[in-house]
Write a structure and sequence with these properties.
Layout: E1 2-5, E2 28-30, H1 36-41, H2 49-68, E3 74-81, H3 88-100, H4 105-121, E4 125-134, E5 142-151, E6 156-165, E7 170-180, E8 188-196, E9 200-209, E10 219-229, H5 231-234, E11 237-249, E12 253-265, H6 273-276, E13 280-294, E14 305-315, E15 325-337, E16 344-356, E17 401-403, E18 421-423, E19 428-439, H7 443-448, E20 451-462, H8 474-479, E21 482-492, E22 497-507, E23 517-523
Amino acid sequence: MAAAADPAADQNPKDAEPHEPTEEADAEFVEEEYDEDEEDEEEEELDGPAAAAAERERVQSVFRRLSSNPVGIRVHDVIIKGNSKTRDELIEAEVADLLRAAPTVQDLLRAASVASARLHRLDVFDAVNITLDAGPPELPGTTNVVIEVTEAANPVTGSAGVYSKPEARSWSLEGSLKLKNLFGYGDIWDASGAYGWDQTTEVGIGVSLPRFKSIPTPLMARASLSSQDWLKFSSYKERLLGLSFGLLSTMNHDLSYNLMWRTLTDPSHASSKAIRRQLGHNLLSALKYTYKIDERDSHLRPTKGYAFQSTSQIGGLWDTKGLRFFRQEFDVRGAVPLGFYNSALNVGLGAGVVLPLGRGFMDLSSPVPDRFYLGGHSSPVCSLSGLSSLLGFRTRGVGPTEPRRLVPSDSDTGSAAPPGRDYLGGDLAVSAFADLSFDLPLKLFRDAGIHGHAFLTAGNLAKLSEGEYKKFSVSEFQRTFRSSAGVGIILPTKLFRVEVNYCYILKQAEHDCGKTGIQFSFSSPL
């Protein structure tokens, strides 16, 4: 018996798990063992059309048998070919148990499809082909699974791009370089860099392993240096130097540890009192856990399904003054098809809280960079980290503020320019959105994926630390919700996603930075 299952390179990872297998309609199945009675009756040689017709009949009879009743089978051996560099134990650890556990031919075909997807996700093979051959003659009802891989012809890959954030009036140049399978363990070494005019600079190097000895989960380690410029919004620059370690990574769970040396500076010397109190050096030692379920049919344009994400972070595992905090964030999404013009209603709700830790913690201050901020033009539909998105408002343009220090002008008049205000973020954040997407009437637009949408977004921030929780009122928090509405056109491309939106500010507070009008957004589709 021999069978071949086509690889599922483009399969969604969640669809590739064993508990949700898919039938391989295009699998080739050639019978040599299970129709023994028919083989005994057709020993005589056939040639020409008669032989071809007999072969087709044998194959069709196999498919009829597979479609009507389960056919028992046992995997005798797993044979690996084509891996000149990749270790056999890596491939076996990824798929051998899955294949050996299949009790029937039907289950084995499904397992072969899942195994192919798993090997493709290692990102070190150009092609994966899994074939089922007959087992030893003395062991009837067995099969040998042959896994033939084609290792990447070029182990070095790279990417680069330029991205824009019009709301921050900034551009960034980003690039990465990967070296795959250097030691044959599926290890991927990468170096990345990003340079943002006027805002962000980051460089980092890292390595990831799909498995390490008996540990059944991917491991990751990374060293990075980043600089973030928030002078325009909150009068400080942030620089981080440190290490991050991925301790657990599965389909639904992710656990990481970060050890960072954080420096906050104010080159303008005009920051508000709340910002000045947090300037200087601190050690950030934080453990972060994320639980995620995403059953939506698309990340760019969901039309059905649901998603949920919970992120918990504990900072200050070492006794570090000022950086001991607990941060919790929830995000829920849902998409419902409406049945006309490929329309769908997406709704989402996000909430988060950050609290300082220590004796008398409610009278302490939470770290400014770890607070929640609302504003920006990024789409709240695509990603699950959309708590900060509030269309129509500038980045960090919502929430508690404090006036900056007045800096005298160098002019002869001695007059001073208006100092402006620092946006301080909030310890409690809630945001929600509703988005109706629909096809445009022209076929040209539909074929290109260009579609329209109408949206409504709302959110609010509140300060709880430094004793402010005593002044918190649920009714006041509800009354001061900021909101916006609008319509727009979305143009998806291979390089980036473009949104052209008209936003109308429904409600904003005195010092919020919101603006009614046309707004553009360019973002990576990844």
